[in-house]
Amino acid sequence: MTTFTVWSFDTPGGAEVASGVLRDAASEGLIKIVDRAIVSWPEGAKKPTTRHTHEDEWRGTGWGAFWGLLFGALFFVPVIGVAAGAALGAIHKSMEAVGLNKDQLDRIRAQVTEGTSALFAVTEDGNLDRVGERFHGLHGELIATNLTDEERRLLLETFD
User: Quick check: keyword Transmembrane in the entry (predicted)?
Assistant: First the structure.
C-alpha cells in the first residue's frame, strides 16, 4: 500500500534529522521511499524553505510538480488573501483527487509554522508503527493519509 505521510517537528532542523532516520529505515527494509520533501521554517523567516530529495531522478520532475502544488497550497497561496479564493479552491480540488482533503491540508498548515519543520513522504510497503518508533525523541507528530490504489494511480498519472 502506498502511504502519504507528514511528520511535523517542533524545531526547524527536526525534519532533516527525521529524513536521515527514514532513509536508515529504508536501508533496513522497514519501508520503501517513493519520494520525500522537507519543509523548514526558521524563526524570523517570512516563509518556509522547501527541499525535494529526488529519490528517483527519472520521476523527479513529476514529483517536483506534486510537491510544488502541495506546498503552494499549504504555505504560499494562503498569504495572497481572499483574491486567491478561486485558485485555492482549485488547488484543494487537485489535492482531494490524490487523497488529501481540505481538513488534512488545514491540519498540516496549522502544525507547520515558524520555528518548526516537516518531513513529507510517499512510501510503500512500510511498517509505519516501527518507523514512527524511530522518531521518538525528535518531538514530532505523525499525520498519515493512506492512499487507495485508485488515488495512487491518479497521483502517479498526474505527477509522474
Answer: yes
pTM score of the predicted model? 0.77
Q: How far apart are CA 152 and CA 110, in angstroms?
A: 25
Q: Pairing relation of β-strands 32-41 and 49-52?
A: antiparallel
Q: Which domain holds residue 20?
A: 2-159
Q: Which residue, chain included where needed, has cell 507547520?
A: 112
Relative to beta strand 140-146, strand 32-41 is: unpaired
Tens-digit pLDDT profile for residues 23-77 = 999 999 999 998 899 999 999 998 899 888 766 554 545 667 777 777 777 776 5
- Euclidean distance between CA atoms 31 and 48, whole angstroms: 27
How many folded domains does the chain comprise? 1
Report CA 88 to chain centroid distance, whole Å. 18
Can you tell me the distance from the alpha carbon of 91 to that of 73, in angstroms, rounded to the nearest whole number?
6
